[in-house]
UniProtKB/TrEMBL annotation:
Protein name (Swiss-Prot/TrEMBL): Alpha/beta hydrolase
Pfam families: BD-FAE
Occurrences of domain BD-FAE-like (ranges): 31-217
Annotated keywords: Hydrolase
Organism: Micromonospora endolithica
Taxonomic path: Bacteria, Bacillati, Actinomycetota, Actinomycetes, Micromonosporales
The keyword Hydrolase appears for this protein: yes
Record-level Gene Ontology MF annotations: hydrolase activity
Amino acid sequence: MSADPRAVLSRPAPAPDVTIGYGDHPDQVVDLRHPVGNGPARPLIVVVHGGFWRAEYDRRHTDALAAALAALGHPVAQVEYRRTGRPGGGWPNTLTDVLTGVAALPRLAAEALPGRVAPGAPYLVGHSAGGHLALYAAAVAPETVAGVLALAPVSNLAEAYRLDLDSGAVAALLGGGPEDVPDRYAAADPRTLVPGQLPVVVVHGSRDQQVPVGMSRDHVAAGRAAGADITLFELPFCEHFGLIDPESAAWPQVAEALRSLLKDH
């Protein structure tokens, strides 16, 4: 493994098998990967990439993660979405793109990967800002999601704004702070949305410098108090990027967290 944990963001990985669109915008696309091997059809895994919702980060930096999930025998989709810093990115399109893509994927993936995708809603694997988007989709459109594996998610937008994570990333997404656009925070912040009954597994490293682990501790504690099916795996000595790096020491725990989410499949 590289000494630089960010190396995973640009590490070469096998190309996806097919890229399809779920809308007319160039960023409304999905990369699909066949599961390795000849096993039975399995639930679709949708990877929602992070990068603090910014245009300079796209789905390519999760190629290693997606390829590793496919190697475990899962059909995998990497969903792209409009991001801040380009026309059309930010509120509300960043969020609605993910909702639209996730809702369309069961049909699109079944057509593109015949015989490999089990019927039903997909499981979402979201990292960082992608973890926020996965939690958001599960809360507002639970009929389109089977469960969520949230890796170091930005699960409290108001707190992320207060902490100024990634130098104004939340304000860029929503158009201001909680006092400026309170309705947007109320609609988009997982911390204020009513938790559903979908299974959610959160994995967070205790040495994360991009998204503090305390955010996940608080989110999971609040969810459990409200009766949600939510679990936290806190990984000592793990930082932010090891969670999406199949060459990291954290990867076996991430794979185990996914298995726990998929225990009935």
